[in-house]
Design a protein that fits this description.
single chain, alpha+beta, Nuclear Transport Factor 2, Chain: A, seven-stranded mixed β-sheet
Amino acid sequence: MSENNFLADQFEANRVHLRAVAYRMLGSRSEAEDAVQEAWLRLGRTDTDDIKNLGGWLTTVVARICLDMLRTRKSRREEQLGPHIPEPAADNENGESAVADSVGAALLIVLDTLAPAERLAFVLHDMFAVPFEEIAPIVGRAPTAARQLASRARRRVQGVSARPEADLSRQRTIVDAFLAASRNGDFEALLAVLDPEVVFRSDATAIKMGGAPELRGAEAVANTFKGRAQAAKPAVVDGAMAVAVVFGGRLRIVLELHIVGDRIAGIQAVGDADRLQGFEIAVLGT
């Protein structure tokens, strides 16, 4: 067997694992496949004589590629309004699973709130048991610092683990629909996502920023939000979906949402700095 054929066979033997790593890193089937293909191209340009563990080498290469893609994605998001929306796992055209096991939509949402280096450290260590000594060079940190990255990520993931995945994913869909309708000034779409008896309240700080002290009913609330939310983003606040209003590089307001069924039944605008500091907030897409 030629060396090229041997490498191709070895790469195919690792493909499912590499795809699983890339998918958890990126939350996108197409981007994961791109990362795996780029690893194959890099393998073809590398002198493999000194590679003692091809599987480990490929995992490291895929991780580096994914880290670069996450950093590029983060920079791109700073110029765009909407967040990246993770794709659910699905079977590929050959009927084989796209990842070694299923990844819940809620977990992907939480992973998408992590900084690129945190996500890499958590995914590689907690999901694939890669030692921190091997993770450290990828993120350019000492092993102890890499351990801290994974620890911070783990705390955030565990902070929402008690909420059923389907619930958090359902809430994300409702919040996305609410923000899209608000930005587009779509009154009917706002009515569709608001409970008829919805109540909107603002704290004293939010009132000073232009929020209404209290509004009742879908029509009144829809009129208030129609054509707005340009600086608003979905967020995970204390383990639940919410809305974060960020402008001037600062978090200004959090909209706590009370969601019943598939509609928003209550909105509380919080602008008080002390309360904002007390929240566990992860703004999606930043």
